[in-house]
UniProtKB/TrEMBL annotation:
Residues 25-288 form the Periplasmic binding protein domain. Its main location: periplasm. GO terms for molecular function: carbohydrate binding. It comes from the Bacteria. InterPro entries: Bact_Solute-Bind_Prot2 (IPR050555), Peripla_BP_I (IPR028082), SBP_2_dom (IPR025997). It is found in: Periplasm. Belongs to the bacterial solute-binding protein 2 family. Residues 1-20 form the signal peptide. This is Sugar ABC transporter substrate-binding protein. SUPFAM superfamilies: Periplasmic binding protein-like I. Keywords: Signal.
Length: 310
């Protein structure tokens, strides 16, 4: 009887979730003060809960600091986590970090911002060249007569942002739009600085016809952004200044609805966070994963913004 009881206890213990393999996957954003990455975090946490045997850990630099991001990744390598999903702030720095993680037996994928020459296994996110093309095409559709335009970017070492800038330029090539000197500016993902750069561009070129931020940074400082728009409201309402902004977070959709931009081109960060967990788990299981997973774009104007806000 005792043997039967012990055997039953052993079977019950084996079936208990506490004995199941649990993987610790880390999602490392460029900057934790950027609300875009909060949405990716939420997708990661949701999917990890659904999977049951995955823990989503979210940690990165508070601000856009590639050196700090590299140190955080080194700390996770030391902790021997089961997988890393990195939004690459600086390609050169992260290529070394990814190599170190890989050497330690930790699989690495990238999301949002890629390092294609590195040892990362897969990239999940936006086709950034297409993203830039979409931004430029939205501007061209809104104001085909052209004028002078400027681009606001984030970190100068971020490959994804360079691709977006190239896309904007390609979309406007051959049109009557001309990029001004000093464009793009680099705000290092700092929302307040992005707003200030918009104001500086407008001051430097009073007849500036359009500003295209290739990330949502200025709108992430909504009060400062609204102050800038209100100061230039007369020209915006008259069609003399057009604002086409990247990303479609809720606060941005509300600003568009309320007349604070002309158009938005959005990514899908929630889906990036979800798919990062799926891909890392598949890698740990020894499954083959696609090298590139594009998550798509959303084009938003005043005509369809209400639908996206539902």
């Amino acid at each position: 009887m005792r043997k039967i009881l012990l055997a039953g206890m052993a079977i019950a213990m084996m079936a208990t979730p506490a004995f199941a393999q649990t993987y610790k996957f880390v999602i490392v954003p460029k900057a934790m003060n950027n609300p875009f990455f909060d949405v990716a975090r939420d997708g990661c946490l949701k999917r990890a809960k659904e999977l049951g045997n995955v823990e989503c850990i979210y940690k990165g630099p508070v601000e856009h600091e590639p050196a700090t991001q590299a140190q955080i990744i080194q700390d996770f390598i030391t902790q021997k986590v089961d997988g890393l999903a990195i939004s690459v702030a600086d390609v050169a720095a992260m290529t070394k970090s990814i190599e170190a993680a890989t050497a330690a037996g930790i699989p690495v994928i990238t999301f949002d911002a890629d390092a294609p020459g590195s040892k990362r296994i897969a990239y999940i996110g936006t086709n950034n060249k297409d993203f830039g093309l979409a931004l430029g095409k939205q501007l061209l559709q809104l104001k085909p007569e052209g004028g002078k335009y400027a681009v606001v970017s984030g970190g100068p070492g971020a490959k994804n942002l360079a691709e977006r800038v190239d896309g904007v330029r390609e979309a406007l090539k051959g049109s009557k739009w001309v990029e001004v000197a000093g464009s793009p500016t680099f705000c290092n993902d700092d929302p307040a600085l992005a707003v200030q750069q918009m104001a500086d561009l407008r001051t430097a070129t009073p007849d500036l016809g359009a500003i295209v931020p290739v990330g949502g940074w200025p709108m992430f400082a909504p009060e400062g952004y609204k102050a800038f728009v209100n100061k230039n409201k007369k020209d915006i309402d008259a069609g003399k200044l057009t604002l086409v902004v990247a990303d479609t977070l809720k606060m941005q959709l509300e600003l568009l609805r309320d007349g604070y931009s002309n158009a938005l081109t959005g990514q899908r960060p929630f889906e990036m966070g979800e798919k990062a967990m799926d891909v890392l788990l598949a890698i740990k299981k020894g499954e083959k994963v696609p090298e590139i997973v594009y998550t798509g774009l959303d084009l938003v104007t005043k005509e369809n913004v209400a639908q996206l806000l539902k």
